Amino acid sequence: MPRLARVDIGDQVYHVINRANGRMQIFDTPEDYQHFEKLLLDAKELVDMRILAYVLMPNHWHLILQPKHNGDLGLFMHRSSRFQGL
Question: What is the pTM of this model?
């Protein structure tokens, strides 16, 4: 059974975290970090998301985001999830 989409409300602040399974590494090289940052910027251009803060660590990352409109958080996360290391 598919999971129901989460509701995200515009102009609210969200903390988003993603951890790798079994404490495996997501980012192996400096280029991996740069690639993920570029995906965040590309997704920001498409969705017009406010990225308030982010932290990238070898096995997980945190984002503090403020979408402008209802539903933008899901669109942004879908766009930024194209990282091949995940």
Answer: 0.84
pLDDT digits (tens, 9 = 90+) for 23-70: 899 999 999 999 999 999 999 988 989 999 999 999 999 999 999 999
Q: Of 82, 45, 41, give the one whose Cα is nearest residue 63.
A: 41
**Per-residue b/e over 54-78, b at no fewer than 16 CB within 10 Å?**
eebeeeebebebebeeeebbebbbe
Q: How far apart are the first and last CA of the chain?
A: 23
Q: Which CATH superfamily is domain 14-80 in?
A: Transposase IS200-like (3.30.70.1290)
